[in-house]
Each structure stands twice: as structure tokens, then as C-alpha cells.
Amino acid sequence: MTSKRFKKLPEKTNTLPADNFEKLLNQIKKNCTTKFDESVDLSFQINNKQKKNEINIRTIVNLPGGTGKKVKVAVVCEESKISEAQASGADVVGGDDFIEKIKSGEMNFEKLICTPSMMVKLSKLGKVLGPKGLMPNPKLGSVTEDLKTAISNAKSGQVEIRNDKDGNLGVSIGKKSFNDDQLIKNYNAVLDTLEKEKSNHTLKGDLIKSAFITSTMGVSYKLKIDKNI
After folding, report:
1. Are 46 and 204 in contact (CB under 8 A)?
2. For the chain, what is the total number of helices (H) and then of strands (E)?
3. Which residue among 2, 67, 164, 206 is the one 20 to 30 A from 198 at the CA level?
4. How many CB atoms lie within 10 A of CB 122?
5. Which DSSP letter does residue 4 get?
């Protein structure tokens, strides 16, 4: 059943022509009529069905304006690095004992970082961590000796973006309460990352087939991408 609040929002916005981010941002914020601080979300449909190979994107974006979320970061490391991880702001730290807790299903964290030497042991938990998207990955900066940088990035505004099998890719770039400059910087950071991903793949045509912007409980609008992606 449609709520009274939702009925007051603009209708048939998906039939409107695509517009640029800056123009749509003001309308998106106006549509945030709930009592909580809604997220501003982007949704992309990528051109992943290629004749020679399927395009799959999995990478990280450092959002300069932050995410507005508190991320609980866990670190699996050898005993000699536990103090360093704790001093760098990790919420949960451990070695072999922590791996056993994860194995038993104890996963009270949103981001997991691991040192290379401990990754051999942790990799055996692929069936536990993989489906939840928590398995550390060296390409994503979460398997590293530089725990301080990894923890700082995870807490300050680093998000992972990846498409599903149908080519859908979604990412939140902040909250309604963010000023426009924060959200514009975060939006451009996402586009810059996708632009780099396009250059890393051999594909026919554009990487992005369509793009939309919405808020958590709002309606979506077609987004005009100003860059050649």
C-alpha cells in the first residue's frame, strides 16, 4: 500500500528526459520527506554483455566527502601487529582466535582487513565471508601490511562498487544532510573510477547504458552522464 508521504512525491519521473547531477540534486533533496537522514543513491546499468567476454567491475572508490556512515572495521593480523591495528582505529582485532570466531559465524563488523601472512589461513573461510562480501582482497586494498592506511580509508569514505550478473551497479554517495559540494565531489569520484574501469576493459560502445539518481525513500530520475564513459 502506497503511503500518504509517497503519494505527495512527483509522479512518472522515469519519463522525464535525463538531466545532469547538479540540477537533479536539489529535487532529490526536496523529495527526502522522511524523518531520517536519507541516502543519496546512484544506480547504473553497465554494458556487461560482450561477444568476447563479460564485463565485471569490482573496485573501490574513495569518496572525498565521506559516506556519513560509521563503519565497524575488523583486522586479522599476527600478534606483533595487534597494537598497531588498535592504535590505527580498528574496532575488532585478532589472529588465529579471531579466525575461529569468524568460522563459527561471529561477524560483528562491516569491513575486514587482513595482513598477507594471515590471508593463507583466512582464505579457507571463503564460503563464510564470500557471500557477505567480506573477504579481503589485495586489489581492493584490504590485504596489506599498511594497516593504518587501510583502516583510515575504510572509515573515512571508501566504498566498494561491483555489478551483479545483470549489469546493475549501485552506490550510495552520502546523505541528504551533506552539503551540495560534498555530494558533487563524491559523484565525480564515482565517475572518475568508472572512467578508469572503462579504460581497463576492451568493450564495444559505452560502459554505462543508463544511470539513475534517487534517495532512500524517494523516486528516481534519469541521470545524464557528462563524461565519456
Report:
1. no
2. 8, 9
3. 67
4. 21
5. H
**Topology of 14-67+159-222 in CATH?**
Ribulose 1,5 Bisphosphate Carboxylase/Oxygenase (3.30.190)
Q: From residue 97, how far is each of 76, 92, 94, 113 by CA, in Å?
A: 10, 12, 7, 15
Residues 188-207: b if buried by 16+ CB within 10 A, e if exposed: bbbbebbeebbeeeebeeeb
The string over 30-59, giving b where at least 16 C-beta atoms fall within 10 Å of a residue's C-beta and e elsewhere, is ebbeeeeebbbbbebebbbeeeeeebebeb
Q: Output the nine-digit C-alpha cell for 169.
A: 551497479
For residue 221, which phi and psi values (nearest 5 degrees)? -130, 145
Domain 73-156 - what CATH class? Answer: alpha beta
Tens-digit pLDDT profile for residues 66-124: 998 899 999 999 999 999 999 999 999 999 999 999 999 999 999 999 999 999 999 99
Say if residues 38 and 169 touch (Cβ distance below 8 Å): no
**Gap between the Cα atoms of 90 and 69, Å rounded:** 15
> Considering just the CA atoms, what is the radius of gyration of the chain in Å?
20
